[in-house]
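Handout, section B. The chain below has 151 residues.
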Amino acid sequence: MKEFNSINDILDFAIDAEQDAVDFYNHLAEVAKTKDMKVVFTEFAQEEIGHKTRLVKIKNEGVFTLEKKDITDLKIADYIVSKVNTTDMSYQDALVLAMKKEKSAFKLYLELSNRAKDTQMKNLFLSLAQEESKHKLRFELEYDEFVLREN
């Protein structure tokens, strides 16, 4: 696992991860087969841009506070196996892949918080994990609304 020597190392890593998420959701929007899918993934990409902007601001201003919130976990992503990212992916498959990616990011940040050497780094990782948990919940709610209820 990558070693972080400073808060800036952590922030650079998180900023890069958010950019990867922006690129991922923009790609899904580009290959979406319906207008509705395109809109949903474009909105997700915009949300990730907001997270990246927040992280850049924290890095530039050196100000960080942890606001603890309980995030509901429907655990839908725990029980679904996703397909490989392809251009002919269904909306359901795209949501499953997105849930899995957000869950992986959550687990990574949680693990990094456990390995953090000081309180500030630990809190930063916990905040990032919390953000990823919110993202996963959003996809789970979308999945519940548009996939599970239609079946």
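Note. The chain has a mean pLDDT of 82. Compare this with the example in section A.
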